[in-house]
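Bench notes, bay 3.
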Amino acid sequence: MCLLCGGAAQPIRVRRALLEPFGIETLKEAVRWPFHREGLLTALACGIVLWLLGLAGLLAGFFAFGVVLAVLFHITTSTAQGEDEFRHAGDFSSFFEHVIGPVIRAALAGWWAYGPLLAYLWWRKDVSITPVAVLLLAIGAFLSPMALLTGALGTPLHQILNPMVVIGYPLRLGRDYALLAGFALLISLCESLLLAVMQVIDQYVGLPNALQNTALLIPALMLFRAMGLLVRVRGDELGYGGESAYLVPVLGRLRPVTGQQMTALNQNIRTRPASGS
């Protein structure tokens, strides 16, 4: 309450992107995030699911891949909604929506990564590397995280192929999206390096498949956490939630001092002994 007029004081709020900008520190937090207890248990559980269902055949392995993708998508959406700890694996009430759907969404996102390059190679009827091919691959690597993020947020399937979304939103997000795309590329390289190292170790020691799957899932958790953090900050520009959901008090967790608290503080100052007495 305002002590002068007695009216209710409304908190001054600004966009979260101004107080908590997406940057290098955010990506560092995403790298650290999987190493909390629930994150490691999630990676281990998903690794075991991939291993066990993979033993049952190709179709069962396909279903396992869908389950794991659904968990990763849930990490993005729960992070975007403000969760900092992974408390549950999400809703699996619909087999098509929560098992088959994530695979379809990931496949459509993959089209942005390799589709333009494959179309160019098919048109030329030549698989030789050219500057245009390299450029198309680089563009695909830059845009594919946006398509994957669009799929993870549960938007309609046709939006994943919509150039206004996959190309327009990165232009709107600017530097923040460029950081995410670069992070996604580093995660991809890390996955490739980690897989190569495990294959060498497996030749001499023999690593359980479940353990290999778990190790490969940890970088994936980092990427989907980073995507959720970007949406948490700038999701209003992506059409995810209302604008008011991205307004936060300027004071953060601080609250104004009440009149009673101020009186007690003044009394404490008056009765405090002088320095050196």
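Next record in the batch:
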Amino acid sequence: MSFEAPLALLGLALLPALVVLYALRERQRARSAEVFASAALLPGVVDRSPRFRRHLPLAVLLIALALMIVGVARPHAVVSEAREDATVILVIDTSRSMSAADVPPSRLGAARGAAEAFLRTVPDKYRVGVVAFASLAVVTLPPTDDRELAAEALGTLRTGEGTALGDAIVLAAELVQKERTDDGTVPPTSVLLISDGAPDGGETEPLEAAQRAKELEVPVYTVVIGTPEGVVEVPLQGGYTQVIRVPPEPDTLREIAEVTSAEHFTAADPEALRSVYEDLGSRLGSRDVRREVTSAFAGGAVVLLLAGGALSALWLRRMP
């Protein structure tokens, strides 16, 4: 325990002095009683001695005074409290294959809808970030507790070329490493990756990226979007159009989830995705926080003052 005004504790030195003064007064009172009556006759005058009762109210009042002095010193204690700071990073595939309309309105539209539904159910106390990836992985929104900003970030996503899947996982896993909570630790983090699972380009292989996320203790939950019938149309010179089949590759996403001790989903169902933030809740634990506890000492002093006054009134009241 520490104190913001430690000099106030010097007031505790007054307590022994008060005890000494009380003892001297009690001795003087006993001597005065001997002047008016013999000690042998006192039992016939007083039916019984109050013994310890006579001293107990004062002892209680002295303890109350000690608590008040400690309270004036503004004590601080380290207490354990439940953590509430967790982060979810939404990683959305915006590669060209995500423009396929086999999942209406499109794979990207379905991924955006699943992410928005997830935002509506994730606890308000959790921060949410958004990472998008095509040929490059970019942070669309740093972690924030502003759900409107997160929804706006999802609304700006557009398809591009390439699928830097591994780079996106590494970027998401490392995104919160620069952030710190009040106690200086990195908040528990999970990644929700929504993709058709077909990597194309990037500097980091998907499973290598998954291993990096595992080292950072960041589980990567994966959701596959798309059907084997998915196609995209690519315009060619001369007004021609090339139709390219883009079947999803769920095996890659499944392996990523397995490596990071997470889950893989074949449908972006809100109830299924609940496990993402339930897992975060199980990893929150507690943390030590330094808090001022003056109110506890002040409250204890008030209770003891009332108790001491009540004891004095009940036990030591004078008979009429």
